[in-house]
Specification:
Largest sheet of chain A: 4 strands, antiparallel
Structural class of chain A: alpha+beta
CATH superfamily of one domain in chain B: P-loop containing nucleotide triphosphate hydrolases
Subunit structure (chain B): Homodimer. Forms a membrane-associated complex with FtsX.
Strand content of chain A: 5-15%
InterPro entries (chain B): AAA+_ATPase, ABC_transporter-like_ATP-bd, ABC_transporter-like_CS, ABC_transpr_LolD-like, Cell_div_FtsE, P-loop_NTPase
Shape of chain A: elongated
Order of helices and strands of chain A: HHEHEHHEHEHHHH
Function (chain B): Part of the ABC transporter FtsEX involved in cellular division.
Oligomer: heterodimer
Strand order of the largest sheet of chain B: 6-7-8-3-9-10
Family (chain B): Belongs to the ABC transporter superfamily.
Keywords (chain B): ATP-binding, Cell cycle, Cell division, Cell membrane, Membrane, Nucleotide-binding
Number of strands of chain B: 10
Largest sheet of chain B: 6 strands, mixed
Structural class of chain B: alpha/beta
């Protein structure tokens, strides 16, 4: 009951001060909006890149080439071993005849080139699909050391590693940018709140003299920070809601192979993150400025 | 009960406002604090509601040593002390009613109680009809009464007043004194710093004379001219 009573007071005070703040409130909301919109864009970009990397990874094909002569027992041993590895999604045995046939199909009209061959130069092979590129190295190492019937192993190692490296660089740079923007927003929120605190220092002094507790004095300012942060967050969400579909439309014709993320659940999670970040910036910003002012 | 033992206060600019001062004030006492400007009257009052801390010695209120009070306990000490400030400290942006109600709101009182009690004290100081006015729309004397109403609204055990009749014409100051006496008779300790000879002489209460931060006289039923001139 008392809590509701106090809460009511805090929120009312916060709203009054928020609207009285005018230009300063507007400035800090704008800063938060811009920072969060950029943060959101970075999140979206990395989300798409992750999706892209995921698709690339799911297409990771490993081809095991077998030696010319081997016994059926040894082959069965290898097949059994492969089936037991959980990271391997599927495996298909391709005989040298099948491989040649496949090659012939891929060459299409130039298949006459193959006619010049007297014998089939292609080895028997096993094609593997692996769930995640991260486990590729280990699997390959294990296979190589264990089975002598393996002549060579080929896989799209380079592409996967490049994508992984790029994602990592992007993540680091994005984090740095977001941290800088976050600090700037916090600084501006804290300055805005500092101005409201300053404008109301007389009131705060009297509150203290008649026996208001520090937390009672502090809460309205914290709510004001929350309000600014939440407002900025909502604005950023609106910006992204409007611009992102347009960006997808424009890029789709240019990059038809790119799988853009537009699942509702992913986007809602993103919006949630933005709103939360806004509120967080607001709270920290106001705490910084209120803390110093309370020693009346 | 308010007790001070060998208390001195030296401000950061080096001014020694109070000098080795000891006094006991019983619950329900009415005390006039007199002395020329700069004698330490305001600092004396500030010590009691812990706006300032003593440099040496102790201030004990109802058995609690206030310099050992943690910051988080200070608000609760102040809730039991009403203060009428020399400069009123009213908020210009709030009405008379809001200025008084504010003092109850900020200690977390419920709306209905705040409303009843605020109207009560405004009636007591005779300002209920000006409740909706802003401080700048009323006279200095009326502002002072608003300040008194705010000091009383939380029904404090101790009332400190700094020159409360300084800006008032004699009729009104008589009214205010009657009011303070009434409050005092209900059991509130009243400590009043003043220059007003007439009031001190009419009331015949305990008179404490300060000079250069020291108590030079403490008389049970004092008279202004007698205490100061001797």
């Amino acid at each position: 009951m008392k809590l509701m009573n106090d809460l009511n007071y805090y929120i009312k005070e916060a709203f009054v001060s928020f609207f009285r703040g005018g230009l300063m409130s507007f400035t800090s909301i704008t800063t938060i909006t811009i920072s969060l919109a950029i943060f959101g864009m970075i999140l979206i970009f990395s989300m798409n890149l992750k999706e892209f990397a995921g698709i690339l990874e799911s297409q990771v094909d490993v081809t095991i080439y077998l030696v010319e002569d081997y016994s059926e027992d040894k082959l069965q041993e290898l097949k059994d071993f492969i089936i037991d590895i959980p990271e391997i999604q599927s495996s298909v045995f391709v005989s040298k005849a099948e491989a040649l046939e496949k090659l012939r199909k891929e060459l299409n009209e130039e298949d006459f080139l193959l006619n010049a061959l007297e014998t089939n130069p292609l080895p028997d092979s096993i094609e593997l699909k692996i769930k995640s590129s991260l486990s590729v190295h280990d699997i390959i190492k294990k296979l190589r050391s264990k089975f002598l019937i393996i002549d060579d192993i080929f896989y799209g190692q380079e592409i996967v590693e490049k994508v992984n490296r790029f994602t990592q660089v992007l993540r680091i740079m994005g984090t740095i940018l977001v941290v800088l923007l976050g600090l700037a927003s916090m600084f501006i929120v804290s300055n805005t709140i500092k101005l409201t605190v300053y404008a109301r220092r007389e009131e705060i002094e009297i509150m203290k003299l008649v026996g208001a507790t520090n937390s009672f004095i502090r809460w309205p300012f914290i709510f004001e920070g929350i309000l600014q942060g939440a407002f900025g967050g909502v604005m950023a969400i609106i910006i992204i809601m409007i611009t992102y579909p347009q960006i997808i439309d424009n890029l789709k014709s240019m990059l038809p192979f790119m799988p853009f993320v537009s699942r509702k659940a992913d986007l809602f999670l993103l919006y949630g993150k933005l709103l939360f970040s806004g509120v967080f910036l607001g709270v920290i910003g106001s705490l910084i400025s209120v803390r110093k002012f309370l020693d009346v | 009960m308010i007790q001070m033992y060998n208390m001195s206060k030296v401000y950061s600019n080096g001014v020694r406002a109070l000098d080795n001062l000891s006094i006991e004030i019983e619950r329900g006492d009415f005390v006039f604090l007199i002395g020329s400007s700069g004698a330490g009257k305001s600092t004396f009052l500030k010590m009691i509601f812990r706006e300032e801390l003593p440099t040496e010695g102790h201030v004990i209120i109802d058995g609690r040593n206030i310099e050992r009070l943690s910051d988080s306990k200070v608000p609760y000490l102040r809730r039991n002390i009403g203060v009428v400030f020399q400069d009123f400290k009213l908020l210009k942006s709030k009405t008379v009613y809001e200025n008084v109600a504010f003092a109850m709101r900020v200690i977390g009182m419920k709306g209905s109680i705040v409303d009843r009690q605020t109207k009560n004290v405004l009636d007591m100081v005779g300002l209920l009809h000006k409740a909706r006015m802003y401080p700048e729309q009323i006279s200095g004397g009326e502002q002072q009464r608003v300040c008194i109403a705010r000091a009383l609204v939380n029904d404090p055990g101790i009332l400190l007043t700094d020159e409360p009749t300084g800006n008032l014409d004699p009729d009104i100051s008589k009214d205010i004194m009657n009011m303070l006496k009434k409050i005092n008779l209900r059991g509130t300790t009243v400590i009043m710093a003043t220059h007003d000879k007439n009031i001190v002489d009419t009331m015949r209460e305990r008179v404490v004379v300060l000079k250069e931060g020291r108590i030079i006289k403490d008389t049970e039923r004092g008279l202004y001219s007698y205490e100061v001139n001797e």
